[in-house]
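Quick one, tokens below. Sequence please?
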């Protein structure tokens, strides 16, 4: 178990990793990655029950799927710093012949990656299949999935949401990165999600909200509550209110950094706001 200072230090280092990875190749998605840094750090360091090493089947342990695969920088950083592969490999992000492609893929054999994601709207369906497989195998561990809020504009999600409650897939915790931004602007302007909590509840899910989605203490408390709701006949949805670009002042409160790399001066500014804690790769 980590203490709070360790979690904060790791989160700061992950933010540095994200900025440096995207800057080095002038390509990638820093906004959503920064917004989910605290959540993924908490998930892999505290919330999930994980085994040492990596086995694709994930039997007897909690497993995680990233549906909004474009935020791969935060996923790769957290995986590397959680021991799945060497931290130094982060330097190969989006380069030719790298296992760290812009969107995660399974055929590269990168530990921690259980599905190819980036074509949005599909992750929830995969997670439901994995959760049902765990039930068939009498495996009492949980399946976690992270989706974007803009991603919920894809229709396949709602088929999956309807299926999960109808089939009582209650070993599933689906977290929505609720930052209100997507590549073309705010989700409200592009295609409003309306009352998202009410929608999930209308589909007979158990729903909770983490209002401070960039607060480590709030995330840990919220996910503990989410875990307590599993096994009661309903899938669980967590609405995680985050700030896109969190931790880098000029990337916050805008959709502009959804898929844009910082230049040299912007990198320097972003890194100055997030001093090295665990050492850069």
């Amino acid at each position: 178990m980590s203490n709070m200072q360790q979690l904060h230090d790791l989160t700061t280092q992950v933010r540095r990793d994200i900025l440096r990875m995207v800057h080095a190749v002038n390509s990638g998605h820093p906004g959503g990655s920064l917004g989910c840094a605290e959540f993924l750090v908490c998930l892999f360091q505290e919330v999930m029950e994980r085994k040492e090493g990596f086995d694709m089947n994930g039997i007897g342990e909690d497993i995680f799927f990233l549906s909004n695969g474009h935020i791969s920088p935060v996923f790769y950083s957290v995986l590397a710093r959680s021991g799945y592969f060497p931290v130094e490999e982060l330097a190969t992000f989006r380069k030719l012949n790298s296992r760290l492609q812009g969107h995660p893929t399974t055929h590269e054999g990168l530990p921690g990656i259980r599905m190819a994601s980036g074509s949005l709207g599909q992750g929830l369906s995969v997670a439901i299949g994995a959760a049902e497989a765990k039930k068939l195998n009498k495996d009492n561990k949980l399946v976690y999935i992270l989706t974007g809020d803009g991603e919920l504009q894809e229709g396949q999600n709602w088929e999956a949401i309807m299926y999960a409650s109808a089939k009582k897939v209650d070993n599933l915790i689906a977290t929505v990165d609720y930052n209100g931004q997507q590549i073309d602007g705010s989700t409200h302007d592009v295609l409003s999600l309306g009352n998202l909590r009410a929608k999930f509840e209308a589909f007979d899910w158990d729903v909770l909200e983490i209002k401070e989605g960039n607060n480590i203490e709030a995330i840990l408390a919220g996910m503990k509550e989410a875990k307590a709701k599993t096994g009661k006949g309903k899938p669980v949805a967590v609405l995680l209110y985050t700030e896109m670009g969190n931790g880098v002042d000029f990337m916050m409160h805008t959709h502009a950094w959804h898929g844009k790399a910082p230049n040299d001066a912007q990198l320097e500014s972003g890194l100055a706001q997030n001093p090295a804690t665990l050492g850069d790769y």
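The mean pLDDT is 97. The first strand starts at residue 63 and ends at 66.
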